[in-house]
Amino acid sequence: MDGxxxxxxxxxxxxxxxxxxxxxTNLKEGLWGNVLLFFNWCxxxxxxxxxxxxxxxxxxxxxxxxxxxxLLIVAVAMGLFWILFLALFAGMRSATDGLSRVKVAFHPxxxxxxxxxxxxxxxxxxxxxxxxxxxxxxxxxxx
Amino acid sequence: xxxxxxxxxxxxxxxxxxxxxxxxxxxxxxxxATMPMPPQAAMPxxxxxxxxxxxxxAAAPDPGxxxxxxxxxxxxxxxxxxxxxxxxxxxxxxxxxxxxANRLDKPKKKDNDLQAD
Lengths: 143, 117
Fold this sequence. Notes:
- The complex is a heterodimer.
- Chain A is mainly α.
- Chain A contains 5 helices and no strands.
- Chain A is flat, with a radius of gyration of 18 Å.
- Chain A starts with a helix and ends with a helix.
- Chain B has a domain at 1-31 and 66-99.
- Chain B contains 4 helices and no strands.
- Chain B has helices at residues 2-21, 25-30, 77-99, 109-116.
- In chain B, helix 1 (2-21) runs antiparallel to helix 3 (77-99).
- Classes of the chains: A mainly alpha, B mainly alpha.
């Protein structure tokens, strides 16, 4: 097995690990907590995307990569997006934790199903956001 | 506890990444520094010459079975950096997600102090 294939397996194993971790830690949060978490994640993604392109332009102007440095450009672009996203996400979570000190009660069945649904949506979002890594591993292998 | 578990998970992934992206044991076997020395060739004896054997075609190098950071043929270092960075940042994301989980169930420090009093 070559390194490219192995990294793909590690990638999928990591996604399964993430899914189990999210379900294990956040299912008890209930529907309201998971709705807040999911919308925090979405808003952080949208905000990061809004400031990503101008920041990337500035960074690449400073780095001045050579024309054959496509992988470096992809790596810088991905890293920049993730750092912007994490900064916004951490800020949003801190603000939400400070502002929302109540737990909205729902019917227990709706609460459980809603928790699962929004945990699933959050995991799907994380999976979709990590697709560029899979694309690099799938297309980058020479030959 | 969460920090130690996540740190171990990251360590584990990094070790897997380092070992397998290098091609695993096959890369060690192909490394000239770790290859066993071949036996010394016997001295040629006088006599009728043996028919010449056709040369075996050179095996094509396996691009994945070389060390991660290599000058040619292996995985570009940017891919390794991208992959490792991706998982480190994902671990940070999961840490942010988990940090505020069950936040309403945690008693405040002030409440504990009052109960102790």
